[in-house]
Amino acid sequence: xxxxxxxxxxxxxxxxxxxxxxxxxxxxxxxxxxxxxxxxxxxxxxxxxxxxxxxxxxxxxxxxxxxxxxxxxxxxxxxxxxxxxxxxxxxxxxxxxxxxxxxxxxxxxxxxxxxxxxxxxxxxxxxxxxxxxxxxxxxxxxxxxxxxxxxxxxxxxxxxxxxxxxxxxxxxxxxxxxxxxxxxxxxxxxxxxxxxxxxxxxxxxxxxxxxxxxxxxxxxxxxxxxxxxxxxxxxxxxxxxxxxxxxxxxxxxxxxxxxxxxxxxxxxxxxxxxxxxxxxxxxxxxxxxxxxxxxxxxxxxxxxxxxxxxxxxxxxxxxxxxxxxxxxxxxx
Length: 332
Ligand code: ADP
Ligand code: NA
Hints:
The protein contains 13 helices and five strands. By secondary structure, it is mostly helical. It folds into two domains: 5-180 and 301-329, Rossmann fold, CATH 3.40.50.620; 215-295, Tyrosyl-Transfer RNA Synthetase (Orthogonal Bundle).
C-alpha cells in the first residue's frame, strides 16, 4: 500500500571514492526510470557529526551533487537535493529520537569505529546518527534503500524504528524498508589492506581511488595494490582465501558489468603483472568520463545550487505531509 519509492544518500565528508561509485552512485543511476520514484540526497547533516571545516564542506556539497550527476543521476528523473535544505529531516529525526532506544545506538559498529576509544567525547549527533538516517528514509515512506554492505546495520535500525512506531501507535504508518545490497561491489576493500573497506572518511589511506583521480593516478594505485603472488584461478571458488585478489576481480567485474566468473575465465592462469594493467584500463575507461563531467559541473556552481534548490522544493512537497501526519499520530 506504500508507493514504491527509493531513497539513498551520500555524506559530503570527503572526496568520493571508487567504493562510493560502485556501491552507491552507479546503482543509483541504474535504478532510475523503473516503477519506483528515486530520491537522492547529499546528507550534510550526517557529515557534521564529525568536525567539518565550513568552507570545505560547502565545496564538498557541490562536489557531491556533481558526482551524482556525472555518474548518471538525472535531476529530471530523480529528486536530487541537499539534506539540510529540507527541514523535515531534522524534525523527523527528533521524533525518532523518542522512539529509538539508547541501547540500540550503542550497539552500532560504525559508532564504535568512528568514536574510537574516547567515545565519551564523540558528538551526541554521531551516536544519534541512525535515527537521522531513519528520518531521511521514512520522511518519504521509502520502500527500498540501495546501499553498500557497511550500511546494513543502520538499515536494520531504520526497520526497528518503523516497526516500533507502528506498534506503539497502533497504525501501519511507516513501511518496513528493504535494503538493496546487490551486486559484486557492495563492499569494495582498501587496496592496501584487504580487511578494511575503501572509505572517503579514512584520510590515512592514500591507496584509495578517488573520482577526481586522473588516469596516471588510477593506474599507479592499481599497480601498487597489495596482492599475493599466485596466478588467478578459473572461478571465484579459487579466490576464497585471497581477499586482495578477490577485491580486484570484483572491482573489474563491477566496472565492466560482468560476473567475476566471466572475468576469471579470461584471466585464468595469469598473474597480476597482466591483470593489474587490464584492470587499470577498465577503471580509467569507466571513471575518466565521470571525472571530466564532474569538473564540467563544478565550473558552474550557481547551476548546481539551482538544481539542488529545485530538488529541495520537490523533496519538501513529499516530506511535509508525511511529517505532519506523523506529528498528528503522536498527538503533536
Ligand atoms: P564513506 O563510508 O565512504 O564515508 P558514506 O558513509 O557517505 O561513505 O556512504 C555512501 C554510500 O557509499 C553508502 O551507500 C555506502 O554503503 C557506500 N559505500 C561506502 N564505501 C563503500 C565501499 N567501500 N564499497 C561499497 N560501497 C561503499
Ligand atoms: Na559509510
